[in-house]
Amino acid sequence: MLRRHTPVALGGAALLLAAVTACSPVEENDSTTATSPSAAATCTPATLATKTAGKLTIGTDNPAYEPWFSENKPDNGKGYESAVAYQVAERLGYQKSDVVWTQVTFNNAIAPGPKAFDIDVNQFSITDERRAAVDFSSPYYLVRQTVITTGKSKIAGAESLADLKSAKLGAQVGTTSYQAITDLIKPTTEPAVFNNNDDAKKALENGTVDGIVVDLPTAFYMTAAELEDGVIVGQLPQVGVPEQFGIVLDRGSPLTGCVSRAVDQLRQDGTLAVLEKTWLADTAGAPELQ
Q1: In whole angstroms, how far apart are CA 162 and each of 2, 188, 211, 236, 279?
Q2: Are 45 and 98 in contact (CB under 8 A)?
Q3: Coiled coil where (predicted)?
Q4: Is it the case that residue 63 has pLDDT exceeding 80?
Q5: Span 278-287, mean pLDDT?
Q6: 221-232 burial, b if ≥16 CB within 10 A, otherwise e?
């Protein structure tokens, strides 16, 4: 259990992402990352087939949550995912003024069918099931799912998955956070499903659920800045290939290779590590649940 009474500390582990992606299997899209000079020459605003010529349309949800975004303003460049998005745009040759943001709900972004965006950043975990409907870029963040609660909850002192079996837990609909509850914790009570993390947080505050599952940076932010007497119960185990966030594109998008190439550059030159250290909490010390 980790109680959070102080502002979120700055720190980072994006170098761990680089290490993991270097030595662990990272499943790629059918469209592979372009590396040749001729391929690189096609990754420019003049040649990319975007929704609007010369513009890059980026989707995300509303509200856009901290610490991934800031002040619910994706276009201000603040927050980890907003900063990553603008860095990707820059690597593709777009100025900040050429970036257009559009609101897209989480589930709509990963549903089959044409998209209203060129790329979408919204904490999308890369999964085989989702790949049947959309493309993903190379991963830009290694993620752990985490159980949080408040000090008055019966699970505040939980130290293992077994301690959570009888808990009423919840998570946002359609997320790997919800899947982690059903596949890893397997509680005896059916988990609650929420439209977004705000609704999940309200349910936790009023006692409708004993705890909720979110990604680790969100867990640190919520317990430090949004919940009274917020508690990080612990991180859930990683099973199989490490869970990673990727940028979402339309299935078969001609931009997928170029976007993956941009993300790869950001990882290789240390930019992702700098952005993570700037915008995300230092996750050291979060308990592990087994």
Answers
A1: 18, 11, 14, 12, 33
A2: yes
A3: none
A4: yes
A5: 86
A6: bbbbebbeebbb
Joined together, the tokens standing for residue 216 give 């680790």
- What is the DSSP code string of 104-133? --HHHHTSSS--S-SEE-S--B--HHHHTT
Structure tokens of 186? 């397997």
Q: Residue 185's pLDDT is what?
A: 97
Give the chain's length: 290
Integer Cα distance of 53 and 185 in angstroms: 47
Instruction: Give the amino acid at 127.
Output: T
Residue 233 CA to residue 211 CA, distance in Å, equals 9
pLDDT higher than threshold 90 for residue 100: yes
Query: Distance of CA 212 to CAs 117, 164, 170, 231, 258, Å?
Result: 30, 11, 5, 11, 36
Q: Is the peptide bond before 67 cis (omega within 30 degrees of 0)?
A: yes
Answer yes or no: is pLDDT of 193 > 90. Answer: yes
Contacts of 202 (CB under 8 A, 6+ apart): none
pTM: 0.83
CB-based burial, 55-68: b 16+ in 10 Å, e otherwise? bbbbbbbeebbbbb
